[in-house]
From TrEMBL:
<dbReference type="Pfam" id="PF13602">
    <property type="entry name" value="ADH_zinc_N_2"/>
</dbReference>
<dbReference type="GO" id="GO:0016491">
    <property type="term" value="F:oxidoreductase activity"/>
</dbReference>
<dbReference type="InterPro" id="IPR052733">
    <property type="entry name" value="Chloroplast_QOR"/>
</dbReference>
<dbReference type="InterPro" id="IPR013154">
    <property type="entry name" value="ADH-like_N"/>
</dbReference>
<dbReference type="InterPro" id="IPR020843">
    <property type="entry name" value="ER"/>
</dbReference>
<dbReference type="InterPro" id="IPR036291">
    <property type="entry name" value="NAD(P)-bd_dom_sf"/>
</dbReference>
<feature type="domain" description="Enoyl reductase (ER)">
    <location>
        <begin position="20"/>
        <end position="330"/>
    </location>
</feature>
<protein>
    <recommendedName>
        <fullName>Enoyl reductase (ER) domain-containing protein</fullName>
    </recommendedName>
</protein>
<dbReference type="InterPro" id="IPR011032">
    <property type="entry name" value="GroES-like_sf"/>
</dbReference>
<dbReference type="Pfam" id="PF08240">
    <property type="entry name" value="ADH_N"/>
</dbReference>
């Protein structure tokens, strides 16, 4: 174990009850977290916000999460300043990216303790902001696409017609790039202002979700989809099933609503069209894979906006708006 200049206290942003949005966030000066044997202490350089962070504040995971007062945000990148006695993989001074647990989070702070098991090295050449964008959104995109048999070297179910909704979202911007690495033909939905961006990420066809065709998810070329990766909570099974190919076809829903959840149960044993809900699971191996793709220049983070730590409240508002294009980043 080594000490790398741990201060006694740090600034953090926390809230103390459900609801209240950005106005409920308060800056506090609190002790720097203590370290378990299998954890590292990270001086946070950048953190990224996700809809999940806002949903936790709204109380969507009550009564289990969170325990108040709560420091939100799970996705961070920074430099290790202290390592626990059982940590083998890292040393003081290493640059890393971590996906913190939802129930503890703690990323909106100058320092955070992260288990070695949720931390991967950040190679030189990847910025803290780009790395911080990856964990939750990147893992969700990766696991959603893997659920339809995508192999990211182009084998597997490659060559399928895939629709990706909300392609301009944090999850969606990674999903389009990963689907192309899997050699799929991608149709993507987004707002009009993001059509060019989503095309530049590799989408073969783009649809403005506010147009009649976009609302109906009709492919500009008239084709049906082998798979739909749904990333918007407005997606409806009744629309999806009309657009799936007759060969079967499957919806992987990472943003499920009640109707789609019911559809997932009703189609559970269907041999033909079906909808499956996918919930991201934490995976160090998967995170390492995404970081490696980024190092190789095959995957990038689309940054919506960067906010200094002092303006974390603005970042929260931006994320909560549901209109970010890519990732909202807070820089410490
Ligand atoms: N299953 C899981 O484990 C898991 C994990 C992470 C996230 N999620 C879910 O994935 C979704 C995306 O999360 P995120 O953090 O990436 O979201 P986000 O970045 O906040 O998404 C905002 C973007 O989505 C676009 N959008 C909104 N509604 C749309 C629609 N109906 N059609 C097309 N585009 C639309 C917006 O475009 P405009 O500004 O043009 O409206 C905006 O660019 C959320 O529902 C989240 O809960 C699930």
């Amino acid at each position: 174990m080594a000490a790398g200049g741990r201060p006694a206290t740090m600034r953090a942003v926390q809230y103390s009850s459900y609801g209240g949005g950005a106005a409920a966030l308060k800056f506090v000066e609190i002790p720097v977290p203590s370290l378990k044997k299998d954890a590292v202490l990270i001086k946070v350089e950048a953190a990224s916000l996700n809809q999940a962070d806002c949903n936790i504040q709204k109380g969507l995971m009550r009564p289990f999460i969170p325990k108040f007062p709560f420091i939100p945000v799970t996705d961070v990148s920074g430099e290790i300043i202290e390592v626990g006695s059982e940590v083998r993989e890292f040393k003081v001074g290493d640059k890393v990216v971590s996906k913190l647990n939802f129930w503890k989070a703690g990323g909106l702070a100058e320092y955070v303790a992260a288990s070695e098991s949720v931390t991967v090295a950040r190679p030189a050449g990847i910025s803290a902001a780009d790395a911080a964008g990856l964990p939750l959104a990147g893992l969700t995109a990766l696991q959603g696409l893997r659920a339809i048999g995508t192999k990211f070297d182009g084998s597997g179910s490659g060559g399928a017609d895939v629709l990706i909704t909300a392609a301009s979202s944090g999850v969606g911007t990674y999903a389009v790039q990963l689907a192309k690495l899997g050699s799929h033909r991608v149709t993507a939905t987004c707002g009009e202002r993001n059509l060019d961006l989503v095309r530049s990420l590799g989408a073969d066809e783009v649809l403005d979700y506010n147009s009649p065709e976009g609302a109906a998810l009709t492919s500009p070329s008239g084709k049906k989809y082998d798979y739909i990766v749904n990333i918007t909570d407005r997606g409806r099974w009744s629309v999806f099933k009309q657009r799936l190919s007759g060969r079967g076809g499957r919806v992987v829903d990472v943003s499920s609503n009640l109707g789609n959840f019911v559809a997932s149960v009703l189609t559970l044993f269907s041999w033909r069209k079906k909808l499956s809900v996918v919930i991201m699971t934490l995976g160090k191996k998967d995170m390492g894979f995404l970081v490696e793709l980024m190092r190789e220049g095959k995957l990038k983070t689309v940054v919506d906006s960067r906010h200094p730590f002092e303006k974390a409240v603005e970042a929260w508002e931006r994320s909560m708006s549901g209109h970010a294009t890519g990732k909202v980043i807070v820089e410490m």
